[in-house]
C-alpha cells in the first residue's frame, strides 16, 4: 500500500495579480523545490475576501499562519523539467514495468494545471526536437517513453486516447465522429493469476496506435485544440472541462514471449476548482465542473474516513467513475495541486491546499509484475488483426466505388448504431416531452408564484399602509400618553401641594385650636378661680374636665381623621394612580414592541420576498429560460424540418403534376399541330401528286422517246464495240499466236497497228459525240422543267438537308447533288467517272414562303414517292 503522492506547485504572480498590487501570502521553504522540508504556509488568515477556512488538525496554526506539509513543494523558480524529473519520470519507470499510473493536476483556474500537464501555447512547436523548455508532463512523457522503449529494444505497442468530460458528458477528442461514449466496467479475465479483474473502460473511445513521439504529439495537439475553453476573469484560455490523456503500453514479457503486459498511464488535467462568482464562469458550467470535483472530494473524504470507506461514491460522477482505479485502487497516483501566491486568491489557495492535504491520506495498492493486466499475444494479435481486417474491408469498399462505402459488417454495425441512435432520439424526444411538461408545470408554478408574489406584495402593501396609518395613531397615542403623563405629574404635584397645604392647615388648625383651647382653658381657669369661691365650683370643674376631655377627644378625632384622609390621599396617589399609570405605560410599551415586531417582520418578509424574487428571476434567466429557449429552438428546428420536408414533398408532387400536365398539353398540342400539318401536307402532296402525274405524263413520253433513240445509239455503239472487241481479241490472239508460234527470226507485222489505233480513235470520237447528244438532251429536259410550275430540285442526301447548305450551294453543286441523290436512289451503281442523271426528277415547290420544316417533310414524302416509283 502507498499513499497518493501529493505535490504542490506555486507559480509566480501573474500580470493581473501584479496590477491589483496583491501581496504574496504564501511562504515556501524553498522558492524552487523542497523535498526534505516540504512546507507551505499562508501568512494571513484574513484576506481581502474574508476569513479563511478553519485549518484541519494536521496543520500547524498560529495566529496569522497556517502551515501544510506535502510530499514535494515547488516554487515559482521551478521549471517544467524539474517537476517532470521528480514527479513524472519515476512514475514512467513504473509504468514501463507494467504498473498503472495516474497524474492529476488540480487547482484554481489560471494557476497552471494545463501549463504543468501540456505546456502548449500558440508559439511553441512541440513537434520539433529538442523539446522546448515549456513542454509539460505529457509531451515529455511521450518523448521519454519512446526513447526508453527503443533503448530497451522491447517488443511493444503504444496506444493513446484523449477523453474530455464536460458537464458530465464524454467526448472523444481524437475522433471526428460524434459517437456516444459510455462508461462501462469490463472484466479482464485474461489475468495471469486467473482471477477475474475488473476495470473501467469507455465504449467507443478511439484508441490509436502510435509508433513514435511525433505521432503522439500530433494526436495530443489535435485533441488539445478540440478542448472546450473559454475566457474567464482569471484565465483567457480557461479549460472548462476535465481531460484524460491515456497512454496504454503493451509490452512483451521477458519470461513468456506469448504474453503481453498491459499498463495504463492516465494524465489528467482537471477543470478549475474556482469560486463561480470570482472566476466569472457560467453558473451551469461551473456547477457541472464542481459536481465532478465535489464528487472527487467526497471520494477522497470517504477514502480518508474508515466509517465511510464501506461505500466509496465513485459512481456519483463520470470523472470519479473513470478514475476509480486511480483513487484507492491499484494505480500509483500523484496529485499536483497548483496554487497562486497572491492574497486575492488566498481563499481558493487555502481550499486547494485543504483538498490536497486530504488526498495525501488516500492509500492505493499499486500492482506490478505478475498482478498487472496481462494479455496473451494471440489475443492481442487477434484484436489487431480484426481491427486491420475491418479497416481493410472498409478501404476496399471505398476504393471500389466512389463516395463512402462500407463493407457489410461495418454497414450492419452502422445500422445497429443508427438504430440505437434512433432509440436515443426517441428517448430524447420523450425526455423533451417530459421536460416540456415539467417546463409547463414550472411555468404554471411560476405563474402561481408570481400570483402569490403579487398577492404577498399586495398584502405587504396593505400591511405597510396599515403600518402607515397606525404610525400617526401611535404617535398620537404617544403624544396623548406623554400629555397624560404630564397631567398626572402636574396632578400629583398639585395633590402633593394640596396635601402639604392640608397638612400645614391641619397643623395650623390644631395649633390654632390648641391656642384657642389653651386660651379658653386659661379663661376657664380664670373664671374658675373667680368662681372658686362659689358653690358651683365643683360643677364647673366637672364641666371643665368634661370639656377638656371632649376637646381632647375631638382633637384626637380630628387628627386621626386628618391622618386617615392624608393616608387615603397618599394611597390614592401612590396606589391606584400609580398602577393606572404603570398599566398605561405597559400598554404603551406593549404597543410599541408590537409595532416594532411587526415592523421587523414586515422587513424580513420584504427581504425574503426580495431574495425569492431574485432567485426566481435568476433561475428564470439562467436556467429555466435557457432550457426553455433551447427546447423551443429544438422544437422549432424539428417543426421547421418537418414543414420543410412536407413542403418539399408538396412542391415535388405539384411540380410532377405540372410537368405531366404540361407534357400532356404539349403532346396534345403537338399531335394536333402534327395532324394539322399532316393534313395540310397531305393536301399539298395530293395536289403535287396530280401535278406531278400530269408532268410525268407529259415528260415520260419525251424521255421514253429519247431513251428509245439513245437505246438505238447505244445498241449500235455496243454492237460496234463488241465487234471491235472481238476484232481486237482476235488480233491479240493472232498476235500472241504469232508471238509464240513464230520463229524467233520472224518479227510480227506491226504495219497493221496504226490502222487499229485509228479505228479505236474514231470509235472513241463517235462515243463522245453520242454522250454529248445525251447531255444536251438532258439539258433540254432541265430547261423544260424550269419553265414549268415546278423546277427540278436536287434531291439531297439526308446529310445535305440543312437549309443553310442548300441556300449556300451553287448551281453546280445543286446539279452534282441531284446526281448523287439520283445515284443513291437508283439501283444502278454509282460511277464517279460517268455520272448518270436521275431519270426521275425530284421536285421543289416554287413557293419560297414554305418553311424549312415543311420543306424537309415534303422532301421526305417526295423521296418516299420517288422510291415507290
Ligand atoms: N509555473 C508557471 N510558470 C510560468 N507560467 C505559468 C505557470 N503556471 C501557469 N502559467 C501561465 O498562466 C496561464 C494560465 O495557466 P493555465 O492555463 O495552465 O491555467 P489552468 O490552471 O489550466 O487554468 P484553467 O483551469 O482555467 O484551464 C498560462 O498563460 C500559463 O502559461
From TrEMBL:
Taking the record's annotation, the residue ranges forming a coiled coil are 381-452
Where do Polar residues bias regions lie? Answer: 829-851
Origin superkingdom: Eukaryota
The subcellular localization recorded is: Cytoplasm, Cytoskeleton
Leader sequence segment: none
Family matches, as SUPFAM superfamilies: P-loop containing nucleoside triphosphate hydrolases
Residue intervals of the Kinesin motor domain: 3-362
Protein name per Swiss-Prot or TrEMBL = Kinesin-like protein
